[in-house]
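Project outcomes to date are best conveyed with an example. Our students and postdoctoral researchers have been running inverse folding experiments weekly, and each run begins with a structure described purely in tokens. The record below, which covers 257 residues, was selected by the lab manager from last quarter's runs and is presented without edits.
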């Protein structure tokens, strides 16, 4: 059930250059369920900016009633959001979208999780879920440079973790697909989130393996009414899917890359 709630800011901190970790507390947390879903957050207190910002859910703690969001402060809205501090509040709409099917990975198998930049956060909650289910997660995380790398230690606690940076300032120099080629492992399933070009290359590299891709698209309403986040597909008789309501997670091969 989608709800609109004024959630309390528990904490907020910058964990890499322009990358912020925001922890919110509220009843909405108990509705999240599947990892990979997102919320629509009102950045300011008024109507400027008018549109909410879609932010993927990094993880939840139902016992504490908190959810963690990680986002990049790069525009007017997210810079406003970055000004919020502990004790304040945020207007949140959610949970929205369809998440990753963790059940697609069989207990005792290995699952490959591939993230790029701000596409990394939703994979953390998924990795925790897989680990709890007896699946061995292997993470390949790509960033531009060392100053924007985040959550390396957190992922490493859950499973084998590889970092790739374009400039070579952290981990292996190159792209996530360079790391994947060197792994030499058999995976029962893979999950990936990041920019469209990365998803295209990853799905090509993992052809023949069951996979699920989470897409990053600009959104207006977040509930499927405005058609701002439409992607073409040959697997749907309509010829399109809406990332916000049909996704953001799709089985590999559904969206035309």
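After processing, the design step wrote out the following sequence:
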């Amino acid at each position: 059930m989608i709800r609109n709630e004024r959630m309390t800011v528990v904490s907020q901190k910058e964990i890499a250059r322009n990358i912020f970790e925001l922890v919110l507390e509220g009843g909405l947390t108990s509705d999240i369920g599947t990892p990979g879903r997102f919320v629509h957050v009102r950045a300011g207190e008024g109507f400027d900016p008018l549109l909410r910002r879609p932010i993927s859910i990094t993880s939840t703690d139902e016992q504490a009633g908190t959810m963690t969001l990680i986002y990049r402060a790069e525009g007017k809205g997210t810079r406003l959001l970055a000004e919020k501090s502990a004790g304040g509040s945020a207007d949140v709409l959610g949970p929205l979208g369809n998440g990753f099917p963790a059940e697609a990975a069989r207990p005792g198998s290995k699952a490959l999780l591939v993230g790029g930049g701000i596409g990394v956060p939703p994979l953390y909650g998924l990795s925790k879920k897989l680990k709890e289910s007896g699946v061995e997660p292997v993470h390949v995380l790509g960033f531009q440079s060392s100053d924007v790398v985040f959550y390396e230690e957190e992922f490493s606690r859950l499973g084998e973790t590889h970092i790739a940076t374009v400039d070579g300032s952290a981990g292996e120099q190159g792209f996530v697909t360079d790391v994947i080629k060197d792994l030499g492992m058999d995976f029962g399933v893979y999950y990936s989130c990041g920019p469209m070009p990365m998803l295209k290359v990853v799905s090509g590299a993992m052809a023949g393996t069951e996979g699920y891709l989470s897409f990053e698209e600009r959104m207006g309403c977040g509930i499927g009414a405005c058609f701002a986040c439409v992607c073409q597909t040959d697997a749907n008789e309509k010829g399109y899917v809406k990332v916000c309501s049909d996704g953001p997670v799709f089985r590999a091969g559904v969206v035309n890359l």
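The chain has five helices and 15 strands. The domain at 102-216 is CATH 3.40.50.80 (Rossmann fold). The training component of this project remains on track.
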